[in-house]
Please model this.
Amino acid sequence: MITNLSSRRSFLKGTALATGGLLLSLQMPAAMRARAALAQDASPTFVPNAFVKIDHSGVTLILPHMEVGQGIYTSSAMMMAEELELDLDQVKLEAAPPDISKYMDPILYDQATGGSTSTRTDWMRLRQAGAAARIMMVAAAAKEWQVTPYGCRVERGVIRHDASGRAITYADIAPMAANQPVPAEVPLKDPSQFRLIGTKAKRLDTPAKVDGSLVYGIDVMRPGMKFATLAIAPVKGGSVASMDEAAARSVKGVIDIVRAKDFAVAVIGDHMWAAKKGLDALNIEWSQGPNAHVTTASIVARMDEVSVGDGAVARQEKDAQASIASAATKLSAVYHSPFLSHSPLEPLNCTLHIREDGADVWVGTQVPVRAQKAVAAVTGLPQEKVAIHNHLMGGAFGRRLEEDSVELAAELMKDIRYPVKLVWTREQDMTHDYYRPYYYDRVAAGLDKDGRLVGRTHRVTGSSIFARYAPAAFKGGVDIDAVDGAAETPYDEQAVFADYVRHEPEGVNTSWWRGVGPTHNVFVVESFIDEMAHATNQDPVSFRRNMLTRNPRALAVLDLAAEKSGWGEKLPAGRGRGVSLQSAFGSYLAHVLDIEIGSDNVIRLLRSVIAIDCGITVNPDTVRAQMEGGVLFGLSSAMFNRVTFTNGAVDQTNFDTYRVLRINEAPKVEVYQIHNGEAPGGVGEAGTSAAAGALANAIFSATGKRFRSLPLAEVLV
Model:
C-alpha cells in the first residue's frame, strides 16, 4: 500500500511520493484544455490523470501493472471502476506505456510487475485516480446545469440531478470536464459503500482466452513479418566455433542468418518451421569457454566453503549464539534449495520492426521501461523512438522481469528492416534461463528446559539479485530479498542473529523466481521450527501457537487452518500431515498438507488447506485462484524441480527432464479467507512460498525422517 502521502491533493497534483519518489501527473494537459475550451463539440479525449481517459467511445482504464495470469487487470479495473461508479462491463482496458514518471511501482522502484506488489501499491492511487475523474465530471455537469455538485449522483457512468430530472453520460460531459480544476481533496468511498470491491467478479480476460481472440506476444502477426528462432552457446561464456551457413541457406524458406556477439545465432525464415529447420542445418559447433568445468557439485562445494565465513548482518537481537550455547536443547542443520527454472508455458518471444527512424517492439514483459531502454541502447535510437506494445503473458514467474531476451532480439535484428518474430524453443528457454539462486542455509537454535525457544541463528548463502538488478537496494552487503523470511519471522523471538553471505556461482545467471526470498526461507524456517517442536516432544501447531502471543493475525490463520484441516486427528499408517506458517508480501498464511507414502515410496498429495489473511480483498475469486495455482506451483517445484549443471551446461532441457505436477497428482485445495479492514497484502506468490515447508513436515510426519534438501520426491527413492 502507498504510504506517507502528504495529502490527497499532493498526490493528485503530482507531488513526489515519499515511497519511491514517484511523480504522477494527474492534471489535464494545457493544450488539451485549450482545445476543449475552443471546440467542445469536437469531443476531445478527457485525460484527468495517468490512469483514466474518456472520450465519445467510453471509459478506458490505463493499467500500470501487467497481466501475467494473476488476475490484476480485473482487480485494478475493479478499484478504479468502484470510485468511477461504473460496472466492469463499461470499461476498456489498456496497458500502460513505458513511463516510469507515471507508472513506477513504489515498492519495486521501477515500472515493473512482480513481488506481489500490484494491489498493495495500487490500492490508493487507482481509487484516487477514479474518484478524481468522477469529481471533475460531476463538477462539469453541475456547472452546465447551474446546480450544486452535491445535488448530483452517478449511476453506471450517468450523472443525474434528481431534483430537475436531468442526466448526462460521462462520454458527453468529458469535453467540459477537461476545463475543471483538479480537486483539492478526493474523498474515497467507505468500505461499507463498496459495490465491486470485495465481490466475486468474473475475470475480464477470460472470454478472450476461451474464444482464442486474446493475443499473447507469441501470437503477434504483422504485415510482411518473418519468423526466427535462435541457438545460444550452451555454456555461459561460450562462442561459435564453426557452423555450416551454406547448408542452412539451402533449406527452403530460409531468408537470412544473423549473429549476436558470437554467442547467439538466429535463422530467419518465411515461417517458423523453415527457421527451425535452417537452424538445425547450421550444425553449430561451440567453443565452451571458461565455464566448461562448472558442475552442480563444484558450485555447492564452494558454497559450503564460503558459508562458514562471517556474513553481513541482517538482524541482531541480543546474543543469540550465547543463548544457544547455554540452552538445554541445541539444534543445528544445513538446508539446500536448488537452482530453479521459470519455464513459463509461453516461451520467450519478441517481435521487432527496427527502422532508421524508430522501432516497434511487440512483447510480453514485466518491465516495459527496461525493455525500451535495452532496444534503444542496442540500436542507437532515442528511447522515445522505441515503442513497446506490451501484451498479456502466458506465464512469467519472474522470468520476464529480465530484459535480456528483448535486448538479444534487438542485437540479432538491429540490421534487419522488416518485422521479425523471434521465438525461443522450449530447450533454449529452459537452458538459458535466469535461474532462482541456489541457497545454502546454516541454521541453529536453542530451547530451554520447558521447550521454549531462547535463541536462533540463520545464515543465508547465495547469489544477490539486488546487487545486479537494483544496486541502490543492496546496502551494507545485505540482499534484503535473500533474507526475507529468515531475518524476520511471525514468531516471538528475543535472541536472533541473521546474516547473509553473498556468493555468485560461476557460469550461472540468477534472478527473481515466483515467491522470491520467502520461497526458500519459509521452507527452511518452517522445517526447522518443526525440528524444534519434535526435539522437545511438542505438537507442531501448539509449539507455534505458544510463540504467537504478539501476532494475532498470524495466530488467527494458524488456528483457522488447523481447525479446517482437522489437525490433531489420528492418521492411518503411511499418512502424514505437515504445517507451515508465514508472514510475507504483506499477508499472513497458514498451510496444512496431507500426504500418503506407500510401500513404493511415492508421495501422494491428498489435501491442501490454506488459511489466508491478506487484509481488504478486492476480488475473493482472484485470491482463491492464486492460492490454488501458487501452492500447486510450489508443490511441483518442492517435489520434482531442480536445475543442475554438467560441464557448464544445464542438464534439464524440457518438461520430460524438468518434471511438473500432473493433474491426477494434484491435491484437493481448500482456501479459507479472513476478511478485515487491514491494508491489502499480496497473494500472487504467497501460496508458492507456503508449499515446501508443509510438504517437508508432512513427510516427516509420515516417515519420521527429516529431509533438508529439495526436491523431496527424489530423497525417498
User: Anything to note?
Assistant: The first helix runs from residue 8 to 13. The radius of gyration is 27 Å. The first strand starts at residue 46 and ends at 49. Residues 142 and 149 are 5 Å apart (CA to CA).
